[in-house]
Amino acid sequence: MNEDLARIVFAIVRRWWVVLVVSILVLGAVNWRVAEIPTRYEATSQFAIIPNESLGQDDTLRALGLLNNDTVAATFADVLSSTDTLINTFAAIEPPAAAGDDYELTATVEPQSNVVRISIEGPEEAVVAALSLAVRPLVESLVIDIYDVFQARFLTPADGGLEAVGPPQSFALIASVVIGLGMGSLLALWLDSMLIHRHMRSFPSDQRLTDGRPSGRKAPSGETTV
Prior knowledge:
The protein is an alpha+beta fold. It is built from seven helices and seven strands. The two termini are 35 Å apart.
């Protein structure tokens, strides 16, 4: 096992230039592909589902009891994640625009809470920012329309939470280096094996070693050739 491992390592070191060339090619191809991916923008906001301020004390206590049921917040998140919500949000921005296929609106419930996280993602920064502002009054109205005992209270500022989200360049760089080294090592081993095999086949048959000596060589005096 140790001899086989040493032979593999020696072959890779001997063909180091193959590993280097393949690694550079893979790294260049991955970086070129990552650079072609357009930058996207994401705006996030959070709102809490709370009892409606217009409720009396008894109704407020009942509403608080309902909030202990996870299905309440999940229902709001499902409705907000629908295509209709995205279309209505696009219609509410100035100037109104048609909802594009490359824009996404998702709503998720924070673990063990009555807080819902809204994420809007798309290719144009200005449009994403406008959608993030336009969705807030829609959310407030939608919560009351679904369950009038509740209302939405946003926990994040209206002009915050916008950032550029691009491809994970650091991960792509590490992955390309690992893939390049792996492919280069395999190619180096294959090339080394092919060259050795070809080199051995180039010897004439009468010069190949037989029993430790070339078959065409006479045995020294005093030895008996079998």
